[in-house]
Write a structure and sequence with these properties.
This is SMI1/KNR4 family protein. The protein has helices at 24-34, 40-49, 65-71, 85-93, 154-161, 178-181; strands at 5-7, 53-55, 58-60, 76-82, 103-109, 114-118, 127-131, 145-151, 183-184. The chain is of the alpha+beta class. It has one domain: SMI1/KNR4-like (3-Layer(aba) Sandwich). It has a six-stranded antiparallel β-sheet. A three-stranded antiparallel β-sheet has the order 2-1-9. A hairpin with an 8-residue loop joins strand 6 (114-118) and strand 7 (127-131).
Length: 187
């Protein structure tokens, strides 16, 4: 497995500290209240790290080639941030649309597209890239167009699908000391 690092960027422009990690009880309560079961690898990550910015942070979004060409979508996407628990709960409890019944949003890419985990049947636990182009966002019906399965589970996404592109990756991680201050992710 590749070594993955994580840091918690300033939480807001006021340099607030990153929120505290959720307890297992808080996660279980959310599951009961929402009626959704979260995969154990994701729950472990949240209880231990509470989201954050990962490095490496780029991944192939597995967009269908025809859809990508029609919509000018790049093959490689940069992970912006995995939500902290408070943001996760807010995003996933305030979205009543039909499409959210089978997925939860766990973060965003650098273009504010959704990174989701399936909570439904045969696709349970898979990491899904959901492209939020306005043309394909049907607020009154099904929501954004699901584009690609990125990984079979959260662990695979973090440890096998993230990489540094040939051009050196995102400038977010090129600030002095960022990698030295980051902690190594272990699940």
């Amino acid at each position: 497995m590749a070594q993955v690092k994580l840091r918690h960027p300033p939480y807001s422009s006021d340099e607030e500290s990153w929120p505290e990690n959720p307890s297992i009880d808080a996660i279980k309560k959310w599951e009961i209240d929402s009626g959704k079961s979260l995969p154990s690898d994701y729950k472990s990550f949240m209880a231990k790290y509470n989201g954050g910015a990962l490095y490496p942070l780029e991944f192939k979004n597995n967009v269908d080639e025809e859809v990508a060409d029609e919509n000018d979508i790049e093959e490689i996407t940069g992970l912006d941030l995995l939500f902290d628990w408070n943001t996760f709960a807010k995003w996933n409890s305030s979205n009543p649309s039909i499409w959210a019944e089978s997925h939860v949003v766990i973060g965003l890419d650098s273009g504010s597209n959704l990174i989701c985990i399936s909570t439904d049947g045969n696709s349970y636990g898979r990491i899904i890239f959901w492209w939020r182009n306005a043309q394909d966002w049907d607020v009154e019906d099904d929501g954004p167009l699901p584009i690609g399965i990125v990984a079979n589970d959260f662990r695979e996404f973090v440890f096998e699908k993230l990489f540094v592109s040939e051009d050196g990756g995102s400038p977010r991680w090129q600030l002095p000391g960022d990698l030295e201050k980051a902690e190594i992710v272990e699940l």
